[in-house]
Design a protein that fits this description.
This protein has 15 helices and 14 strands. The radius of gyration is 21 Å and the shape is globular. It is α/β, with parallel strands linked by helices. Helix 8 (about 220-230) links the parallel strand 8 (about 205-210) and strand 9 (about 240-245).
């Protein structure tokens, strides 16, 4: 029975937690998997309920944190080495940057036979200055040489990592898209829609626009607020907007809304133009209640919120970063360059003014998206890769 040690940065609410949980639970029964990772950070929602709901009991490495901390990272490395020696995995598979660095170093020094890393995103654009970015690239190139295989989650990401950032040779990088249980986004949609819209006092003739994700500089929610301001002054349609998530830029974003003299609320049952909801675990209920979904990031891997939104038959207005072009069905949304704020605003205005038309297109395309990003396909792809790596 092959043993897999699966390591993630931290158990915070997001697509990585879903994917590692599905892989740990639904790989063929001949695999034995141990899932470990760090705890959620301040301002984040814990995602431990996801693996727990699948009967998994992950181990928490409390020293494994998002930010660089030499002492904490060293202790996390020691903890992971101890787990490797006890569990004796045939495969160590790390997910995302911090887990990839600390976990792969431990696996290398313990001489684990197969070492795999998945890039769910990267920090080579939009996060740090040129010197720090160069250091991270050097580290990733070294770790890639010591890894058995590298996984990208989209063709665009593979091209970026191999041709632009030159992390490894293309032959070593495999493309395996994310996978989810998307059925819940197609079930009881009317009931869920009514629940969300009643909770936030959204009228039947109001178009509800939402953006879902961590409130952080790289997510650039300021562009979303600017676009809402633009639409409110250039359409006769009634709109309500929702910022779903939480994080370090929350207070700055609220101040920005106040500065632009846009109405906002952080409580339920309001009719303000912009509502800060914080995290909503039942994202299927939120998506059922929304009409349009936005993303304004300066950099992304493969944003789960957009896959879920398409499964829920929602039309999307997004910046064209990371692997978004690979996951966005051509009938499901509009793209604009991350630096092109005017086009983003015009795209959102178009979607609002032509809502009935774009909503119909998104509904037709949703089944294709659900099939492409199923967790059964993810597990099958991963099993095929593991089998090849173990046999060689």
């Amino acid at each position: 029975m092959p043993k897999v040690l699966r390591i993630i940065n931290r158990f915070n609410l997001g697509g990585i937690s879903y994917n590692v949980s599905y892989l740990s639970r639904y790989l063929p029964s001949e695999y034995e998997t141990l899932l470990i990772g760090g705890p959620e950070e301040e301002g984040e929602e814990s995602s431990l309920y996801i693996p727990h709901s699948l009967g998994l009991e992950p181990r928490i490495i409390h020293e494994l944190r998002r930010s660089i901390n030499p002492l904490g990272d060293y202790f996390a490395y020691k903890r992971i080495k101890k787990i490797i020696k006890e569990f004796k995995p045939d495969i160590v598979h790390t997910h995302a940057s911090k887990a990839g660095a600390v976990g792969r170093l431990a696996a290398i020094h313990c001489q684990v036979p197969v070492i795999v890393h998945t890039f769910h995103g990267h920090v080579f654009h939009g996060y740090f200055g040129s010197f720090k970015t160069g250091v991270f690239k050097f580290i990733e190139r070294y770790l890639a040489k010591k890894s058995t295989a590298i996984i990208a989650i989209s063709n665009v990401q593979k091209k970026e990592l191999t041709e632009i950032h030159k992390i490894c040779e293309p032959v070593k990088m495999h493309v395996i898209p994310l996978g989810f249980d998307l059925k819940r986004f197609t079930e009881n949609k009317t009931e869920k829609r009514n629940s969300f819209r009643k909770k936030y006092a959204v009228e039947d003739d109001e178009i509800a626009i939402g953006i879902i994700g961590r409130l952080a500089p790289i997510k650039n929610h300021y562009l979303f607020i600017d676009a809402v301001d633009h639409i409110s002054r250039n359409t006769n349609k009634k709109i309500r907007t929702f910022i779903i998530g939480d994080g370090e830029t929350r207070e700055q974003l609220i101040s920005y809304v106040e500065q632009k003299q846009l109405g906002f609320a952080t409580l339920e049952n309001t009719n303000s133009l912009i509502v800060f909801t914080s995290w909503i675990k039942e994202v299927d209920i939120a998506l059922a209640g929304l009409d349009l979904v936005c993303l304004t990031s300066k950099n992304e891997g493969t944003p789960v919120s957009l896959i879920e939104a398409q499964a829920a038959s929602k039309y999307i207005i997004t910046t064209n970063v990371g692997g978004i072009q690979d996951i966005l069905h051509p009938e499901c949304g509009l793209l604009s360059d991350a630096e092109d704020a005017e086009t983003f605003k015009q795209n959102l205005l178009y979607a609002v003014n032509n809502f009935e038309e774009v909503n119909k297109k998104a509904g037709i395309a949703s089944q294709e998206v659900i099939k492409k990003f199923s967790y059964s396909r993810l597990c099958s792809d991963m099993n095929n890769l593991y089998t090849r790596l173990l046999s060689s």
